[in-house]
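Re: beginner question about structure tokens

> Can someone show what the tokenized structure looks like for a real chain? I only ever see the sequence side.

Sure, here's an example I had lying around. Input first:
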Amino acid sequence: MDKFPMTRAGHAALEAELKNLKSVERPAVISAIAEARELGDLKENAEYHSAREKQGFIEGRIQELEAVLSLAEVIDPKKLSGTIKFGATVTVVDEDTDEEKTWQIVGQHEANIEKGLLNMSSPIARALIGKEEGDSVEVRTPGGERSYEILKIAFV
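And the corresponding structure tokens:
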């Protein structure tokens, strides 16, 4: 399988989540299952079924994180420069509303638009990649056509 890019911060966050799941969440749910078993009949034991369901989610997430981390190619944006590419932090202004926005272009597993982390395969990121400061881009988003002017590019 192909490797996919990830920032150092994104990689560290996924590693921390994996560590928490293995060292805190997994033992807690195993303990909850043991306690629920002691309550008797498992057929009608809601605590037992709830704990088993939670265990399934935890184990699934652990497997997912291990797979993602094994295929991640950590890229340090500080070593990059030039036009917009993976890892760039881009400040743009919406040409219709004059609203400024700042996004960092990251991989799909670390993307979080509320935190300003833009998936590199999103329409906005694809429109920005390869552009320079001062360029204008037209983006077709689910909310309609948007026009952005690129104010600043930083690799931090």
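Each token stands for a local structural state, so reading them left to right follows the chain. The longest helix spans residues 8-37.
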